[in-house]
Write a structure and sequence with these properties.
Distance between the termini of chain A: 21 Å
Structural class of chain B: alpha/beta
Number of helices of chain B: 9
Largest sheet of chain A: 5 strands, mixed
Number of helices of chain A: 4
Distance between the termini of chain B: 40 Å
Oligomer: heterodimer
Radius of gyration of chain A: 12 Å
Shape of chain B: elongated
Shape of chain A: globular
Largest sheet of chain B: 7 strands, mixed
Structural class of chain A: alpha/beta
Order of helices and strands of chain B: EHEHEEEEEEHEHEHEEEEEEEHEHEHEEH
Largest interface: A-B, 27 and 28 residues
Strand content of chain A: 25-35%
Radius of gyration of chain B: 28 Å
Helix content of chain A: 25-40%
Strand order of the largest sheet of chain A: 1-3-2-4-5
Number of strands of chain A: 5
Chain lengths: 106, 402
């Protein structure tokens, strides 16, 4: 997964064509850490279909807030730089996340 | 592979059960949906677990619990139990990803999750300022203002944690000024904290915000008057709900969905136990969860001992078995054992099995044993005849002629 931060978010995510998936997490967030192996497996399974990014919000708080993310874990799908879908802590279900990717990536 | 003990849920209850079960040399597995630790791993302040008042956090303590269980050989695997088949001697549990696990006893410790209030704006603004986990999201609110809904231990303690980040933390309290449901130590500390503000006799009516939380509407519980308050975040700590939906049609639950057990953590199904926050009980804390886990594991161990040895020695024996229920405190039953030994001397095709009915209450109850001593004659797992109380050697000879 591509590690994104306030320096490269613009180029890696917002100016990227196609589907981009971003996992917003931080080491202090226990549910995020619990979910991490599933996220990595999801990215590996779908390699080549989208760009998979990981954002540690610890030092990227303002960037997260600018993306309207103020809770973790949060998954954001972008398509051609536009926000396409958001999963929050309560809606995250890896089967549904997979279905959303299938829908967006075709 | 059939496990001796399968534990569904790796919070403090499940981990404590794992420690006790694996230390008793039982083949033990814990299935947890993510990382072990449960709700305790998402709470930073942990001041009341005995021996851990200094520099101990929820995640830190749970890591130690997990290492402790692994040290004694508990196998911890990822998996969310979704389907259960608990009847019969071998229980089958299926995880969300379709794996099937089998075990002779099961300890259910699925835990609980934060209750939602379901007010307007709450669902839509989740992850956008609405939160149920301070350790997860506190960082976002550095120098911002938040409100906390609730006034129990969790609400007041998490509000204190939030003051390390937020500019101002306002507690929305339904009671009159000065009245809190939390413990007195936390109440005094919160009252003395200059970053904590209070909105007494108030309820949260609505959360407003376009893409992020912008303000809330509060309602005065006495007058019904509504007022607005600007804020950047809303944290809910208004209790929890048990994660027992998958057990609804299987076990006896109470009206709120908590699993009903007796003091030994036994559910209504033999060999199935419940522990921790998902159980109907008075106090839900790490210490009571761990206690439940210990009790459940020891009860499961006894159950396994009882059922296993009974199966080997009586039900699946190659010859006929005279099963004698005795008790060390009953002189009559001790004399009966000696008499049985004499009566069987030289008899072929029949063996004597002794069961301490005080230690094996379940088996005694199963065979309706009301008097000590009681003797049952088994053949191929079935009862052919029985003797109760003051029988003689001659009675035994007659029984054996069946």
């Amino acid at each position: 997964m591509v590690e994104v931060n306030k320096e490269n978010y613009e180029t890696e995510v917002l100016q990227c064509e196609g589907v981009v998936f971003v996992d917003f997490w931080s080491p202090k967030c226990e549910p995020c850490m619990a979910l991490m192996p599933d996220v990595e497996a999801f990215a590996a399974r779908n390699e080549g279909r989208a760009k998979f990014c990981s954002l540690d919000t610890t030092n990227n708080r303002r960037l997260a807030i600018a993306q309207k993310v103020m809770g973790q874990p949060t998954f954001v799908f972008y398509k051609d730089g536009e926000k396409a879908f958001v999963f929050d802590k309560d809606t995250i279900d890896m089967d549904k996340v997979q279905a959303k990717l299938d829908e967006l990536a075709g | 592979m059939i496990y001796d003990v399968l534990i569904a849920g790796g919070g403090p209850a499940g981990l404590a059960a794992g420690i006790y079960a694996s230390r008793a040399k039982l083949k033990t597995i814990i299935l947890d949906k993510g990382r072990p630790g449960g709700q305790a791993a998402t709470t930073m302040e942990m001041e009341n677990y005995p021996g851990s008042f200094q520099e101990v956090t929820g995640p830190g303590l749970m890591k130690q619990f997990a290492e402790h269980a692994a040290h004694f050989g508990t196998d911890v695997q990822r998996g969310l139990v979704e389907k259960v088949d608990l009847d019969g001697p071998v229980k089958r549990l299926t995880t969300k990803d379709g794996r099937v696990f089998e075990a002779r006893s099961v300890i259910l410790a699925p835990g609980a999750e934060p209750r939602t209030l379901n007010i307007k704006g709450e669902g839509r603004l989740r992850g956008k300022g609405v939160s149920y986990c301070a350790t997860c999201d506190a960082d976002f609110f550095e120098d911002l203002d938040v409100v906390v809904v609730g006034n129990g231990d969790a609400a007041v303690e998490e509000a204190m944690y939030l003051t390390r980040f937020a500019n101002e933390v306002t507690l929305i309290v339904i009671h009159d000024e000065g009245v809190l449901d939390c413990n007195k130590t936390s109440a005094e500390r919160a009252m003395a904290n200059p970053k904590i503000k209070w909105e007494w006799q108030s309820m949260l009516e609505e959360i407003i915000g376009d893409e992020l939380v912008e303000k809330v509407i509060l309602k005065d519980v006495k007058t019904g008057a509504l007022r607005e308050k600007e804020t950047n975040g809303v944290f809910f700590f208004i209790g929890t709900v048990p994660k027992t939906e998958f057990l609804r049609d299987v076990l006896t639950l109470d009206e709120q969905g908590y699993i009903l057990t007796n003091e030994m953590m036994e559910t209504n199904i033999p060999g199935v136990y419940a522990a921790g926050d998902a159980r109907a009980k008075y106090l839900r804390q790490v210490i009571t969860a761990a206690s439940d886990g210990a009790v459940a594991a020891v009860a499961a161990e006894k159950y396994l001992d009882e059922t296993e040895s009974f199966r080997h020695q009586v039900l699946e024996a190659s010859e006929r078995v005279l099963l004698t229920f005795w008790a060390p405190q009953s002189q009559e039953s001790i004399e009966a054992l000696a008499m049985l030994d004499r009566a069987l001397y030289g008899e072929g095709g029949v063996s004597l099995a002794k069961l301490d009915s005080y230690r094996n209450k379940k088996t005694a109850a199963l065979y309706l044993v009301k008097r000590i001593p009681t003797v049952l004659l088994f053949e191929d797992g079935r009862v052919l005849g029985r003797l109760e109380g003051g029988f003689t050697e001659a009675d035994i000879k007659i029984l054996l002629q069946q």
